[in-house]
């Protein structure tokens, strides 16, 4: 969400030359995505995003992410492909960091999407799953169900510092999910973080899906549950908009299909999604100074979703 | 240097409509300038910078800055003018902050300018002074000589925490400058902060002068001294490049002119410039957490310049 590494205009001009993209016209550091440094670069050949991978993205995972983006772009999806330089390389070394020059996609992220826009997002997620159906690579979900208990333990007493009783609430939920987690649903590579931030739109049209750096092998319907938890509530988790939730699921089902077993599992999967973001936000909250470069996101915004899914899950997906 | 205020795409689209600039195509928060929030906004009618004024810019000063930019743009200078909405207003209220939609200028800020580029920057500063010669408004230099002693006192013992002996060094310099500060040089409105960051270039051509939020009424040649101190040294202040310094002064003198009295005063003015940035950076250093949104700039980078100007001032401007 900030520019951690300053890249000189001279270094950017040299990079553009290596890609055969002409001369440098403008470059602005942008506040976007996970903890990478990003620049919006204008060259005589067009506009591009220059990403330097900082802490959160493991360089060893880059080949997976880049292959995934190529795979989806080859199938016509609006995802930002990493360009290849004159020697065919997608990953450079810049200022000591792995770096990619990435396609620029038009569109803006919505704060208050309409039901029509939510339906388009659901359709886009369905199209993504269709494109990924024959994607052969795998990547474990490092933030998936298997890791939640350990993550809660690492947060420790900090959970109750965030909200009294949170540790016990999380422990109860972990037990519930362990007992009720669906066992036999189809698995595939998924986006795993398709928040409104990560969907670019122009009007009712999806023009980009971005920020695939949590993509992993997981229960496929979990992706729809994550998206539902992210899109259907107000940011702070207090208000649920049934029209948005229904439009997301309908768009997804129309584009990709949703089995009866997957549909039936959505309330439990959504509890898992809400717990996942409660826990990862809690961890970040406890380990990020209040005045750090990264804006801390409120873990309670997802605890509220969790409570709502736990109390009314069937209704919310009716 | 960061995005402090999040503006929704919906609010930006409404703003563009108020300016008659068509629909919103893209918007990226950018890390630029003093402590404002800035977005690079693409509309169907072109690209613009949306600035929300946060802490450092006093809203009461905005009319001065906007009039200055209009004055210079009317005279053909590459400065970013604030646009007017359909009702003729330049200043909006957005998310509770004063905000302007500003022209986008191409070009990049250089990290290691050549002598030819420094000459172009000197010429651009001369052209700015020529354009401002008949600019009638005034704004006091709140970071000028009259305020340095008080600023040093506010830093207090913190100066010695930054570097042992710094408080005494600053006190000696304040005495020296009080005794030798030029009294009768021409005064005008100046930029006062024309660091390489604030000059956009394409090749050897200046395509933009930006960030006028320190502009004020001051000894005119002080602007050249500030620019000299900013451009002629390596960032950390250890290396001086005489070719850059000479090119800046030559470009300025060729474009605007430099009297013998102004030229003779440059070494003392440059000591003042180096002290000004030593003190303001020291203040920011002492009052900014190490992990804050804003990158702290090393005060010693300008103390080194100060020492160099004090020891060799005549030579550095020979």
Automatic annotation (TrEMBL), chains A, B:
Catalytic activity, reaction form: L-homoserine + ATP = O-phospho-L-homoserine + ADP + H(+)
Q: What is this protein called?
A: Homoserine kinase
Family matches, as HAMAP family: Homoser_kinase_2
Record Pfam families = APH
Pathway in which this enzyme or protein is active: Amino-acid biosynthesis; L-threonine biosynthesis; L-threonine from L-aspartate: step 4/5
EC class of the enzyme, as a word: transferase
EC number(s) per entry:
2.7.1.39
> Which PANTHER family is this protein grouped with?
AMINOGLYCOSIDE PHOSPHOTRANSFERASE DOMAIN-CONTAINING PROTEIN, AMINOGLYCOSIDE PHOSPHOTRANSFERASE DOMAIN-CONTAINING PROTEIN-RELATED
Q: Which residues form the Aminoglycoside phosphotransferase domain?
A: 27-253
Q: Which UniProt keywords apply?
A: Amino-acid biosynthesis, ATP-binding, Kinase, Nucleotide-binding, Threonine biosynthesis, Transferase
Q: Which GO terms describe its molecular function?
A: homoserine kinase activity
**Alphabetical list of Gene3D superfamilies matching this protein:** 3.90.1200.10, Phosphorylase Kinase, domain 1
User: What is the top-level taxon of the source organism?
Assistant: Bacteria
Hey, which family's this protein in? Belongs to the pseudomonas-type ThrB family.
Cross-referenced CDD domains: HomoserineK_II (cd05153)
């Amino acid at each position: 969400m900030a520019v951690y590494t300053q890249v000189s205009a001279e270094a950017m001009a040299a990079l553009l030359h290596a890609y055969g993209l002409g001369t440098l016209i403008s470059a602005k550091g942008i506040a976007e995505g996970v903890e990478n440094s990003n620049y919006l670069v204008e060259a005589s050949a067009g506009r591009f995003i220059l990403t330097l991978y900082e802490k959160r993205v493991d360089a060893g995972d880059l080949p997976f992410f880049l292959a995934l983006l190529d795979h989806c772009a080859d199938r016509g999806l609006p995802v930002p492909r990493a360009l290849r330089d004159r020697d065919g390389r997608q990953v450079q070394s810049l200022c000591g960091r792995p770096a990619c020059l990435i396609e620029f996609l038009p569109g803006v992220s919505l704060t208050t999407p309409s039901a029509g826009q939510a339906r388009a997002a659901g359709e886009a997620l369905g199209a993504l799953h269709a494109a990924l159906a024959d994607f052969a690579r795998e990547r474990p979900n490092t933030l998936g169900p298997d890791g939640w208990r350990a993550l809660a333990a690492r947060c420790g007493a900090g959970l109750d510092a965030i909200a009294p009783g949170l540790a016990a609430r999380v422990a109860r939920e972990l037990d519930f999910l362990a007992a009720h987690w669906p066992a036999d649903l189809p698995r595939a590579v998924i986006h795993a973080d398709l928040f409104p931030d990560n969907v670019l739109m122009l009007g009712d049209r999806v023009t980009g899906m971005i920020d695939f750096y949590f993509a992993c092998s997981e229960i496929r319907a979990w992706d729809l549950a994550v998206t539902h938890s992210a899109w259907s509530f107000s940011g702070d988790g207090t208000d649920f908009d049934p029209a948005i939730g229904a439009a997301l699921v309908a768009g997804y089902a129309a584009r990709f299909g949703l089995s009866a077993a997957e549909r039936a599992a959505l309330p439990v999967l959504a509890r898992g999604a809400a717990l996942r973001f409660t826990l990862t936000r809690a961890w970040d909250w406890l380990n990020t100074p209040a005045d750090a470069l990264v804006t801390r996101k409120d873990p309670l915004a997802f605890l509220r979703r969790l409570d709502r899914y736990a109390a009314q899950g069937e209704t919310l997906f009716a």
